[in-house]
Amino acid sequence: MTTLVNLGALDAAPIIHDPFDHLMTSEAISAEDSARIIADYPEVPTAGNYRPEEVTYGPTFGDLMTELRSQELADRMGAKFGVRLDATTQTITIRDRSELSDGDIHLDHWTKVVTALLYFNPEWQHEGGRLRLLRSKDDIEDYATEVLPTCGTLVAFKRCGRSFHGHRRHVGTRRMVQISWNRSGVVAKFAQTASRLSTRTMKRLLRIFAKR
Questions:
Q1: Residue pair 81/30 in contact by the 8 Å Cβ criterion
Q2: Is residue 190 domain-resident?
Q3: Residue 171 CB-density burial (10 A; 0-12 exposed, 13-18 middle, 19+ buried)
Q4: How much is the pTM?
Q5: Which of 54, 71, 101, 198 has the most CB within a 10 Å radius?
């Protein structure tokens, strides 16, 4: 049973079809629990996505990781989008901040079935860094939904050929946990690993050139 993640808020959030199937709630985590999670948030060494086993964090954040891995959450999320997630593999990654190379318009990898983003920023007054769910693959201003990445906000969407998203540039703190349920199988696993390594390599090269 979950105690940090508000499954009732997830159940109550309607599926929005414009520009593609997604849901959003600002009540996925209470303000009190968000404060406890932030106090135990991982020490993330650089901008980029890190798996839980790659970073150090406190006990409340550890409790959150356990809840996000639960079959109960997978079942509820799958029911919302009309898909079975019990045969998928799950990936969780953690971010602490964003850099200039982040935010490009993109589709999630074809192996992803459902992606959920959970934010942990006490306030957000920046124009950049607000996730946009886009109607166009070429225009960051052509969006149907803009997500304020504040504490307790969760946005989830079903990956499809038009689930383009991105955000205007932001450099600085932007705490976020990404949960994805992915297609299983040898081919899918190989493709996921290759994509992740390619992305990390490109990000590292961009950081090196930016310092020159």
A1: no
A2: no
A3: middle
A4: 0.87
A5: 101
Distance of alpha carbon 78 from alpha carbon 167, whole angstroms: 26
* Interval 26-37 mean pLDDT: 98
Alpha helices for the chain (secondary structure H) = 7-12, 31-39, 59-68, 71-81, 186-210
Q: What are the pLDDT digits (tens) for 176-211? A: 999 999 998 644 454 455 555 555 554 454 445 445
- The range of the structural domain enclosing residue 83 comes to 7-183
Please write the tens of the pLDDT for every residue from 67-111: 999 999 999 999 999 999 999 999 999 999 999 999 999 999 999
Instruction: Find the mean pLDDT for residues 138-167.
Output: 98
Q: What is the identity of the amino acid at 58?
A: G
Question: What is the count of structural domains for the chain?
Answer: 1
Q: What is the CATH number of the domain that holds 160?
A: 2.60.120.620
Terminus-to-terminus CA distance in the chain, angstroms?
A: 50
Residue 191 in domain: no
Per the listing, tokens 């404060």 go with 35
Q: How many residues does the chain have?
A: 212
Phi, psi (deg, nearest 5) at residue 110: -60, -20
Which residues have CB under 8 Å from 193's CB, separation 6+?
none
Q: Is residue 212 included in any domain, yes or no?
A: no
- 């985590």: which residue's tokens? 29
Structure token pair of residue 70 = 């639960």
